[in-house]
User: Which sequence fits this backbone?
């Protein structure tokens, strides 16, 4: 939880300094998840509010057995680094910490040190949706076709090698 607060503070500080900089440098690949700012009016003045938008693959509900995978809008995930994509996944699923182990050939190896939330608490659908979102997001990396997830197995999810083909039902 402390690490999440630290990451949030770092994002806000980075956002503040990027807004006050007079530098006219070429825009680089973002180091943190991009945010949209929208104006909201109050009785005395107009304030800016930061609104997170999904930058990862998600599973959209559509009724019983009709969920569909949805790609991120306006995101060029192929321009993000491995670390940035894992950070995006961790920001969107703060209760399930994903750590990079290594990349070898066409496979990215990750681990979930504390998999209790994923494997025993969010049900079959929640676990499948998380695994699909993680697999589709990480296979956006150049030459990555498989995601090897190490974790303690549970009632709703287990460790293994996942590919986009494992989630045909959601397409």
Assistant:
């Amino acid at each position: 939880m402390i690490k999440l607060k630290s990451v949030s503070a770092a994002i806000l500080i980075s956002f503040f300094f990027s807004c006050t900089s007079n530098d006219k440098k070429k825009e680089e690949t973002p180091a943190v998840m991009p945010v949209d700012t929208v104006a909201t009016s109050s009785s005395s003045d107009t304030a800016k509010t930061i609104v997170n938008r999904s930058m990862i693959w998600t599973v959209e509900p559509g009724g019983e057995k009709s969920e569909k995978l949805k790609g991120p809008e306006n995101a060029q995930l192929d321009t993000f680094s491995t670390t940035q994509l894992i950070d995006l996944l961790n920001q969107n699923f703060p209760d399930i910490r994903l750590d990079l182990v290594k990349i070898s050939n066409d496979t990215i190896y990750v681990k979930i040190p504390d998999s209790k939330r994923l494997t025993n608490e969010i049900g079959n659908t929640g676990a499948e949706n998380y695994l699909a979102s993680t697999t589709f997001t990480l296979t956006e990396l150049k030459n990555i076709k498989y995601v090897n997830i190490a974790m303690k197995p549970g009632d709703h999810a287990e460790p293994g090698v996942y590919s986009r083909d494992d989630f045909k039902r959601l397409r």
The first helix runs from residue 2 to 20.
